[in-house]
Amino acid sequence: MTELIAVTGATGRIGRRVVRRLAEAGAAVRALGRDQEKLGRLPTDDTRVASYDDAAAMRSALDGAHTLFLVSAHEGPGRVRTHATAVDAALAAGVRRIVYLSYLNAAPHATFTYARDHWHTEQHIRSTGVPFTFLRDSTYQSDLAAMTSPQGVLRGPAGDGRVGAVTHDDVADSATAVLLGDGHAGATYDMTGPEALSFTEIAAALSVASGREVVYEPETRDQAYASRVVHHAPDWEVEGWVTSYEAVAVGEMDDVSDDVRALTGHPPQAFADFLAANPQCYRHLVSSS
To answer: N or C of the chain: less Cβ packing under 10 Å?
Structure first.
C-alpha cells in the first residue's frame, strides 16, 4: 500500500509546487489548505480544508497520512503555538514522520525574530519523538526583487552583509526528494542558492535584468523603523522586516550549502539566472521606469 503524504499550505508558493511534484511522481498526496476553491485547482483529488490552529480539523484532515510536510504558518505572535497544535494533531492522527519547512540558522536568540519561532517549533517536534527532517530555507530570491521599491531602491539595515538566497523551485525539489526518499530521519538541510550576495550585488543584478538603475541604500535601525511607518503594520511585523536585514548584516544569512544539489542532483539556481527566467518578479521596476 502506498504511504500517504499530507502537504499543508498546499495552495502556497512551496506547497503547491510540492503537491504537483509528488503527483507527477505518482505518490499518494493529500493537500491541506484553508480555501477549497484553490485546493480544487491542485493536481490531486484528495484535499482537506483545515486551519493549523484547529486541532480537531487538523486531526481529521491528517487521518490515514503516514508523512506530514508541514509548511510553516503565516507570521504572527502566536505562530509557535499554532505550529504545536498542528504537530500534536498530526501525531494524534497517527502521522509517523514530519518534514518541517524551517528557516536558516534558526536559533532561540536569532537576530531575525521569525527565525526564533522556527527554532521553538523544531524543538517541539524533537520533543515528540517522531522521526523528522528539517529543511531550513534561506531568503527567497523572488522576495529580494519584491523588496525593491518601484523607484528602484532596495533599502534596509543589511550593511555589507551577504545572503545566499534560494528559489522556491529548488526548495520544492529538495522537499520532494526528502518526502519520497529514505535515510533523512533526524537530518537538517540548509536550503540556499549557490552564492552569497551583498545587497549592492543584488541591486546590480536587478539593474541588469530590469534595464533600469536599481540601488541599495543602507539604513540604520532607526531609519529602517521610521521608513516603514507608512505601512501602518503591527509592531511585531515591522520588527520582523527590520531584523531580516539585520540578520544579513551580522552574518547569519551568508551560508552557502550544497544540500540542494545533494538532495536533487542539480545545482541550485543563481540569482541572475532566476531573474532572467522570471521577469514577472521585477515587472514593477520596468513598468514604473
So the answer is: N
